[in-house]
Amino acid sequence: MENHEAKTTETSAENHEGIAIHLAPEVVTHIGTLPVTSTLLTSWLTIMLLIAFAVYFKGAIRKIPGRLQVVLEVVIGGAYDYVKETLENEALAKRYFPIIATIFFFILSMNWIGLLPGVTSIGYFVESHGVQKLIPFLYPVNTDLNVTIALALIAFFTIEVAGVLALGVLKYGGKFVNFSSPLAFFIGFVELIGELARLVSFSFRLFGNIFAGKTLLLVSFFFVPYFIPVPIMGYEVFVGFIQATVFALLTLFFIKLAVAEPH
């Protein structure tokens, strides 16, 4: 009876470990004292693939474009025109379109690479509490809150720098610190809180959606491995695109607000 109970407990532990959900990224190795996580390796892989594609495409540009060149010219040209129309200033569009486009393609690539076969499933096993635990080499990047916070900081400082460059330090700061009247001071304080809250909204929106999608896929693979995961993966491809688009568009719209004259 005791052996049966011990076996049942061990089996339950194994099953629990099979669908365990961890917020902290798994550490694959260390470079000196720097922990190298599976999400960090995936982000490095994404960067290398984007650089390789950019170098390849730059060398493949022709006066008579092929299909890939036509598609990219339409996509990038259309996106640039949209940024220019939104900012209502071509100089501002030329200045900020590269970072907005980079944010979009980087997030999109990380989201879609996280859905590829082998991600989360190829790695090595370590023993944890008497159970063999898989440490994957690659893991969806935006399930790591460190990454989404870093992206949020990049977007946040881009927005603030855009406002300062367009209006100057004093005029831009006057949007948040205004002693002309009690009402103006209160409105400025609310604007300041809203500005800082963007760090939370940027980072947790992206993290929450991608983490939730990966958790849903994990649970569906564990319980219904042959039918449910396929439509969910198709949906996650769409979600990955939407999240990249939302992040880039919010950065654009907040830049538009930052460069606007204060009222």
Helix content: over 70%
Beta strand %? 5-15%
Largest sheet: 2 strands, antiparallel
Rg result: 23 Å
The whole-number mean of residue pLDDT values reads 81
How is the largest sheet built, in terms of strand order? 1-2
- Element pattern in H and E: HEEHHHEEHHHH
* Helix run count: 8
Multimeric state: single chain
> Would you count the extended β strands for me?
4
Please tell me what the overall shape is.
globular
What is the distance, rounded to the nearest whole angstrom, between the alpha carbons of the first and last residues? 78 Å
Low-confidence stretches: 1-17
Number of domains: 1
Q: Structural class, please?
A: mainly alpha
Structural account:
The protein has 263 residues and is mainly alpha-helical. The protein has one domain. The chain is 71% helix and 8% strand. It is built from 8 helices and 4 strands. It has helices at residues 2-18, 38-60, 67-87, 90-113, 145-167, 169-173, 182-223, 229-259, and strands spanning 27-31, 34-37, 123-128, 131-136. The strands form 2 sheets. Strands 1-2 form a two-stranded antiparallel ribbon. A two-stranded antiparallel sheet has the order 3-4. Strand 1 (27-31) and strand 2 form a beta hairpin. Helix 2 (38-60) packs across helix 4 (90-113) and helix 7 (182-223) packs antiparallel against helix 8. The radius of gyration is 23 Å and the shape is globular. The model is unreliable at 1-17 (pLDDT under 50).
